[in-house]
Design brief:
Length: 273
């Protein structure tokens, strides 16, 4: 049986719901989820309160408030479901539910994490994090590490790919790839290049599509990695990389009719989260 470890940032808005949905599917496909490793949230080099300040200063007060409302709705629903149904509060609860090892760290590159992956004989690591992995941890998994990047790779590597795709008027997409020493540059294991128009109305609607469908895509990616089956890049896609956008970049984004979050996203969150 293939041993799986998950490395994830401590995010209850997107990451926890994704893994609540994905772990049962991994198990149903005879994949042994042994460990959940939770890292502190980062945004590029930003941590803690600096992340919230960046969102406020870059995307403006209106978007900041709407994003805060969106996250608060999910948080309050989770609290309600915990008290009424006994659902998971956090990743620790999730690990107990599936009898997984649980570890916390400041960075997945810590020596203790590398040693854990090696000692537990982890075959494949699934990551949901913005940390750039060091060579030792990349080499610690017996088969490899799989990352999700929400762009049509090789276009828009780096941070906020949806944002940069709108600015550059390049195709949106989602790619699952093997991790190597270069950012978002590993061999492609799965790629979705046709995104429903309704999921491109805003960055949040696109995220919803990506995180809601990840559990289906990751099984394909894992099987392809095990069997050394990789996809070729589309020759029509330009190889580009971008970092955190600035306030001026956001002005271009808006001129191109880009939206971060809409009222429709919040209503959908109230109904379905």
């Amino acid at each position: 049986m293939t041993n799986i470890a998950i490395i994830v940032e401590d995010d209850l808005t997107w990451n926890l719901p994704l893994w609540e949905k994905t772990i049962p599917i991994l198990i149903a496909n005879n994949l042994n989820v042994t460990s959940i490793i939770v890292c502190k949230k980062i945004l590029g080099k930003l941590k803690g309160k600096k992340i919230f300040i960046w969102y406020l200063l870059t995307f403006g007060l209106s978007n900041f408030l709407k994003l805060s409302i969106y996250a608060s709705i999910i948080y309050l629903k989770r609290k309600y479901k915990y008290f009424i149904k006994g659902d998971n509060r956090n990743f620790f609860d999730l690990s107990k539910k599936y009898n997984c090892n649980y570890y916390e760290c400041n960075s997945p590159n810590e020596e203790k994490i590398i040693n854990k992956i090696s000692s537990l004989q982890i075959d494949i690591v699934l990551i949901m994090t913005s940390y750039i992995l060091s060579t030792p941890i990349i080499n610690s998994a017996k088969i490899g590490i799989i990352n999700k990047h929400a762009s049509a790779l090789p276009s828009n590597k780096g941070l906020f790919p949806y944002f940069w795709s709108v600015i550059n008027k390049s195709p949106q997409g989602v790619s699952l790839h093997e991790v190597n020493s270069k950012i978002d540059s590993g061999k492609i294991l799965f790629q979705k290049l046709e995104i429903p128009e309704k999921n491109l109305k805003s960055m949040i609607s696109f995220y919803y599509f990506v995180f809601n469908n990840y559990s289906q895509w990751i099984i394909v990616a894992i099987n392809n990695l095990i069997n050394n089956q990789f996809l070729n890049y589309s020759p029509d896609l330009e190889d580009t990389y971008f970092s955190l956008p600035t306030k001026n970049d956001f002005k271009v984004f808006k001129r191109n009719r880009g939206k971060i979050i809409t009222l429709e996203d919040i209503i959908k969150c109230l109904k379905y989260s």
